[in-house]
Amino acid sequence: MQVGGVGRYVEAYTDPEVLVRWGQVCFSSRFPPCAGILITCQCLYSQIIFYDFAIVLPKLAILLFYRRIFSIRTSNRTFKLATYIVGLLIVGWGVGVMITSIFQCSPISYGWDKNQHGHCINLLAFYRWLSLPNVLFDLAMLVMPLNMIWNMQQTVKQKVALSGSLLTSGM
Q1: Candidate ranges 8-12, 94-98, 146-150; pick with highest mean pLDDT
Q2: Which residues are CB-contacts of 72 (< 8 A; sequence separation ≥ 6)?
């Protein structure tokens, strides 16, 4: 299903009939339709791992950016500790999400081949509750540098501008 002529909804890729047609068109010259669909499902399943990296690595990069910017004020151990704690929580969350994503089905191959006997976790609930810690980490990372900014020896106008710049980057 196309929307406005641009892109496709996720439902279009999970509908078995659409996958069959897509597999027949794309893989008919090199693979039989069955193998094409299987490869497509395996690729979709493997994208979950890249999604986990795409969420965790930018957050860690922002924390390292904060550490580098505010490293001049080495006396503030609370900020250093906060960056370490939030960073470790993000890494732990990312590893947990990755392990859960990889082993979401038993056996693992049931994630892309439903013709065998197996079962999967409730993916709707998993992805719904996956976003809550993600949002909380984002909020914590937005608020973290504000105390450091407001303790700088700058004019109020410069502090407001810098705070606004960092807060706007979170949108």
Answers
A1: 94-98
A2: none
Residue 106, beta-bridge partner list = 119
SS (H, E, C) 62-108: HHHHHHHHCCCCCCCHHHHHHHHHHHHHHHHHHHHHHHHHHCCEECH
- Mean pLDDT, rounded, for 20-44: 59
Angle between helices 16-27 and 33-69 (to 10 degrees): 100
List the structure tokens of 150: 């407001």
User: What does the longest C-alpha to C-alpha distance in the chain come to?
Assistant: 69
What confidence score (pLDDT) does residue 31 get?
45
Enter the pTM of the model. Answer: 0.71
User: What is the C-alpha separation between 169 and 104, in angstroms, rounded?
Assistant: 33
Say if CB 149 and CB 166 are below 8 A apart: yes
What is the Cα–Cα distance from 107 to 115, expressed in whole angstroms?
12
Q: How confident is the model at residue 120 (pLDDT cuts 50, 70, 90)?
A: confident
Average pLDDT of the chain to the nearest whole number = 78
CA gap 35, 159 in Å, rounded: 59
Q: Answer yes or no: are the C-beta atoms of 33 and 20 closer than 8 Å.
A: yes
Q: Cα–Cα distance between 24 and 32 in angstroms, integer?
A: 8
End-to-end, the C-alpha distance of the chain in Å comes to: 29
Distance between CA atoms of residues 55 and 49, nearest Å: 10
